[in-house]
Amino acid sequence: MSDTSGSSDSHVRLILNIWFTFQIIGGHFLTPLLLITFLFSKAKRDATLFSLGVTLVLSSICNCLLLYTNQYLGPEPNKVLCIFQAACFGASAPMLSVATMALVWQIRSRVKMKAVEWLSLIIVAPYITFVAFLIVITVLGSRRPDTVTRARRKFYCSIESRVISLISIAFTSTAALLATGFTVTLCFQICRFLRIVHQTRRGQIPILPLATRFIIFMMYLFFAFGSSLWSIRDRQTFIRDIYASTFGIAYFIVFGTQRDVLQAWHLCRKDTSRTKFSTDTGAQTIDGSRVLQLDISLDHADPVSGVGTPHAPFLPTYSAYTPTH
């Protein structure tokens, strides 16, 4: 019996070490590094993409509260700390789902050349969601502290509340389905324009690399939602938690390997080639190394034609770069 117990403890310790390692690497180092790069370098990004990174960092910090206080193994942690972490964890999934939905809505609107209304509200919506769930779960946990424990999930404290579970699942699933729907329509629109470009053999879609990266990231998150559904069926599985702990790493790999980011870190030689595009307002010189930039500009929404590329007046302009004069 003692051998079985010791083997089980070793297994749990190994899983915990893997989980905390992913949390710290992705949420404490890589994602903050990328956010600092977005802030203080020329590799600027859209506010919704930046906000998604912030929510990943915040979620990672919440998940590591027991590690900070060295209460992730052994006896049950301090009840106040346990209730607070349970509330933070319960609020993280809705926050991330809203942040993801805000990002896909922003990209989809920019691809369709529509100005995003209520942009400020879209940016702060994830944090409003986080605070709302945090308050509700904290109140319920304080009233019924016996329902809050670390033993249930091993990685973190959680609250046993059918009402909270149903509300959280319904809210997160709705936001995830909306984000998935927006992504699917984005894919169809990109395919449509690719077909037009292929048939006419003229025009170009500079935003395509960005859209491809975003779709890859959404596919990664989609598998996370699938693992979450599986964990509802099998509460003993660690798949969901281990997979979710890699979100920060995935965010860094997908959005941190773009040319202008690598140039900011001096890991990529700067492309001195520059392509000229003509617009109705005159000639603009575009730095080709910034085509992947997410800071999509609507200032030049006129049809454009590149040097050596026949003019395609029916194709919209996707200005996924910043003009340099």
If you had to describe this structure to a student in words, what would you say it looks like?
This protein is of the alpha+beta class and 325 residues long. It folds into 2 domains: 2-264, Rhopdopsin 7-helix transmembrane proteins (Up-down Bundle), CATH 1.20.1070.10; 274-324, no CATH class. The protein contains 10 helices and 6 strands. Keywords: Membrane, Transmembrane, Transmembrane helix. The chain crosses the membrane at residues 20-40, 47-68, 83-106, 118-143, 163-189, 210-232, 238-257.
Annotate the secondary structure layout.
Blueprint (H helix, E strand, L loop, with lengths): L1 H39 L6 H17 L1 H4 L10 H33 L7 H25 L4 E2 L8 E2 L2 H39 L7 H26 L5 H6 L2 H10 L2 H6 L9 E6 L2 E6 L17 E2 L16 E2 L1
Antiparallel strand pairs: 1-2, 3-4, 3-5, 4-6
Keywords: Membrane, Transmembrane, Transmembrane helix
What's this entry about, in short?
Keywords: Membrane, Transmembrane, Transmembrane helix. The chain crosses the membrane at residues 20-40, 47-68, 83-106, 118-143, 163-189, 210-232, 238-257. The chain is built from ten helices and six strands, in the order H-H-H-H-H-E-E-H-H-H-H-H-E-E-E-E.
